[in-house]
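Batch job 17 of 40 flagged for manual review because the log was empty.
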Amino acid sequence: MIRRLRAALPPATKRGLARSMQAVLVVLIGYGAWIGEPKAVTNGTAALAITFAPAVIERNYRVPIDPFLAFWLTTAVFLHTLGSAGLYASVGWWDHVTHATSASVVAAIGYVAVRAVDAHHEEIRLPRRFFVVFLVAFVLAFGVVWELFEFGLDVFAARTGIAMPLAQHGLEDTVKDLVFNSFGALLVGVWGQAYLTGVGERALNRLPLDD
């Protein structure tokens, strides 16, 4: 499914959509600064910085980044920023979409990392079926750490009175977040491995890894 989506969007279209989302993020940052909303400025700035990460890696480390991967990452942070700007409160399912999308990006990063270990260490051989289990476990572990981070921000906000850009919304919301994180991981594990294997191999061939 991910391969079909990638093939359906020409590279120029992906770059154009990514640039459009970056432009909207700039507008949101400016609007947040205009109305004095630090949360919008903080989330928007962090998201905008993340969207430039693929270009920085490609330029500084000469690691080729597939345009779809950059588009994928930009979409995830863009959806989260829109949620923080008001859609989380007004659209009940928006949080589920952003968690599944963000989790799929985390799963993709985890997959490329474990493929690097598998490909460049002869003493380590990981069965292909293991990757699905690994991705779900990796994303769930990351999700738990993220929820603990949000809990810490809640505690800090309660004690200082300073509004934080992230917050928890109860145990039920946390469980739902982890469920949709798992869905994003499964999406990558079942349908994304074929695409990510090619992307990972092209990137790893450019890295100065030891034999």
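Reviewer: the log was empty due to a logging misconfiguration, but the result itself is present. The chain has a mean pLDDT of 81. Unflagging and moving on to job 18.
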